[in-house]
Amino acid sequence: MEQLDVALRLIPFTVLVSLSVVQVIVYLFWNSANSTYLAALEAAILPLTIVVLQQCWLWRSRPKPREVTVSFIRRAVLVAYAYGCLLASIPIMLFAGANPDGRLLIAASCAGLIATGMSAAVLPRVAISFSSLIIAGSFFGLATTGERFYTYVAILLAFYAAFICFTILHFSRLLKMRVIAQIDLERQQEFTNLLLNEFEENASDWLWETNAELRLQHVSPRLAEVARSSERQLHGLPLEQLLLPAVAPPAGHPSTVLWNCIAERRTFRNLILPLNIAGEQRTWELSGKPTFTNGVSFSGYRGVGSDVTEKRRSEERLSYLALHDPLTDLPNRVQFQQLLEAAREQLEAGERFAVLALDLDEFKSVNDTFGHAAGDGLLRAVAERLRRFASPDVQLARLAGDEFAVLAIGSAARDRHAIALLASDIVAAIASPFTISGIRVSVGVSIGIAIAPQDGCVEIMRRADLALYRTKGEGRNGYRFYEAEMDERIEARRALSTELRGALERNEFLLYFQPIVTREGRIRGFEALVRWMHPKRGFVSPAEFIPLAEETGVIIPLGEWILQQACATAAGWPNGISVAVNLSPIQFRHSDLPLLVSSALQESGLAASRLELEVTESVFLEATPAIKTALAKLRDLGVRLSLDDFGTGYSSLSYLRRLAFDKIKIDQCFVRDLPHEQSGAAIVRAIIDLATSLKMTVVAEGVDTEAQRRFLLSLGCHELQGYLFSRPVPAEEAHALANQKGLRRETIHAA
Ligand code: C2E
Ligand code: MG
Ligand code: MG
């Protein structure tokens, strides 16, 4: 189709030239001898030319057909034959009879006409049909003269003809190749455009292009959309105006980097540019590459861009969340670690810093009593108060739950005094009550402080925590500095807990028994108290190892052993004498206590009514349905329950009402200063009155002196326990005491 198109553009000229040549020939050779031939020639060539011109005109004015039919080409070849024949007839008919001038004219015309065949070279069959007929006619004309001179002319004509044919074929091939290349190129372009359109329609990216003056070219609808402008307005706009930065860019700013690249005609990739688009802060990502004509002269930039504002915002939000606590908006543990790291690097410059580990006191009970929403509100309010202390030298963080941390650097960590002042200010700030959705809540804060470099750099967080535990252990709501001895204690504890694990198998535990006596001094029963005889350390107090056993889980097998031992021992005592066994809250959580108790009773043969179980109030801190069921089942077995250390824990009177206890043991701290201490006496009296009216037995623990005994009896206390009567004694001694009717003075002194 392309070939035909090219040929049909030139053919009108060829036929017009042929027609003109014919007119000149007719004019010059018209005489009586030639007139018939010339008239016939004229009559043939005129309509043929008109038809050809009309066909060419139609071809150009109509839409091109999809494909060229073979018959169309065949017709074109036929027309070329017709022209060739008509023109070839000129030398045949006229050359021999012409004078030298006429012959020259015919020779020149034929040469020219043969050459015009080249105009149809794209269609070689047409061209060759046309030219070769004229060549043949010319040969014939030359031959008919019979003159030797024209033989030489014929030889020249043969060369000439060969050259013409070769050129036609060569041109045709070249044109064909060019046309094919052109078609390929167009197809490629079409494909690329298709891809680009697809890209712009579906991706958030767009293409951009500038000319050598850096003015925008070929603005795509997508670019116009993100630039909040129109394609028309953007076309020709200097790139500089489009990429106006949101603020004046400092050195090293992406915008500066961009313009440096452009000035040096360098490629840039994925540059992040903060921009001001129609008054809104947006972020674009831009890549671009300079283009050069002929590889030398700069012709502009071309590249892709995308609006990454939303992506950036969500990335920023994510990285904010990764470093902040969503509840209080304070930095989280991760960021605090980074701050610590930075502070550590500053140490080399002779700086020092302090870490304050904070933990709220009684936060759990606020959470439990008022619910999590109130707990969250409290944490937010605490964070708000802590923020008052924030400065470039004082950085805050929430590490977890009710744990906060403060990093003091620079002047805030100038000396121990400055740090202590900060800590005591924080304690004071948290101490004043909070109002959380209308509820007044009071909490305290315990603080542990460690200072770098004196307390180490790497371990500083752990050491601040150690100091914090000490503050907690020493009555909370205050602060303490880390001391090396705290680490030693931890180390000792760790060693002890390792040894504790094998102690039961090594038979290092013993049960001692301390009598509980009636008002008259008769033994009612004994409390079983466990002892650890450590092979190297000697006697280790239960006050020290029971918490460890609870932490490590050793309390589960140990508790079971104690229960069996106590029941077995008590089974050997006279009938009316009972045994009291202490239970740890951990045992309620992790073992089937009712089953354990009933099997201990069965194995020993001890009557259930002679077993008392002592529990502390801490069991009720998590009075889950499971614990309540366990307590009820224990009561159903017929054992008695006593509430140990009453008054030291969360002493909620509602426990007494909800859970039927047989006994209350008044903690020794209330007994210690009797009878002189007024408030202690008042508390003991109140407990005794309350318990009596609830029909519970009251036992006073830690009765050391005769004065205490008398005073407690005067208040109506039912039973007594303490060194005044007897210290805890080994099983054999307890057996002997149990078989006596009462405790004599000598026994007391022996104890
Ligand atoms: P607790 O159950 O309140 O036991 C009473 C503690 O007071 C015993 O200390 C006893 O020796 C001591 N005590 C008795 N009379 C006096 C006195 O007149 N003055 C003074 N100052 N102290 C007196 P112990 O045996 O060191 O036990 C301490 C705590 O260890 C117990 O307190 C109990 O909570 C726990 N514990 C002891 N044995 C066991 C046990 O077998 N199982 C469990 N789970 N805990 C036990
Ligand atoms: Mg006890
Ligand atoms: Mg007690």
Protein topology:
Layout: H1 2-29, H2 35-61, H3 70-95, H4 100-116, H5 124-145, H6 149-202, E1 205-210, E2 216-217, H7 221-226, H8 231-234, H9 239-242, H10 254-263, E3 268-277, E4 280-293, E5 297-307, H11 309-323, H12 333-347, E6 353-361, H13 363-370, H14 372-387, E7 394-400, E8 403-408, H15 416-431, E9 434-436, E10 439-441, E11 444-452, H16 460-473, E12 478-481, H17 484-503, E13 509-518, E14 523-534, E15 538-540, H18 542-552, H19 555-570, E16 578-582, H20 585-590, H21 593-604, E17 611-616, H22 625-637, E18 640-646, H23 653-658, E19 663-666, H24 668-671, H25 678-693, E20 697-700, H26 706-715, E21 719-720, E22 729-730, H27 731-739, H28 745-750
Parallel strand pairs: 11-12, 14-16, 16-17, 17-18, 18-19, 19-20, 20-21
Antiparallel strand pairs: 1-2, 1-5, 3-4, 4-5, 6-8, 6-11, 7-8, 9-10, 13-14, 13-21, 13-22, 14-15
The structure holds ligand C2E and magnesium ion (MG) (2 copies).
